[in-house]
Description:
By secondary structure, this protein is an alpha+beta fold.
Amino acid sequence: MDIKYQKLNSKDLNYLIALIELYGDVFEMSNLIIPNAIYLQKLLTDERIIFVVAISENLVVGGLTAHILPSTYFPSGEVYIYDLAVKTEYQRKGIGRQLIASLKDYCTQLGITEIFVQADLADQHALDFYMATGGTAESVVHFSYPLKNN
């Protein structure tokens, strides 16, 4: 299986749309509405957002979205993995592991010293994956503040 790993750039709108569709499938998001091309193009040009995809035969089979967060404590910032998914039929083949490795390599080039990610305690598969890829678990509680749209 020949897999190519690629950080998306401004010319990769079709790959970004495919990545969002993949997230919808893997995360079982039945009401997924893909934002318009103008908005997505803006995301692709935002240097604080990182999209890395795994491509097999010109199809996106996995990918991640990460955000560079500026730090008030040091000049390099930190990176937060917001989403990571691999198509079901491609899971357990090292693709997720290589997506993490690709992100680590890119972040190292930027001088970033830490990457972090959240996983639900009930999602044992995700917990096992992040531990197996070198992540260190921390006990934290996540709080959300839902805002009503007017």
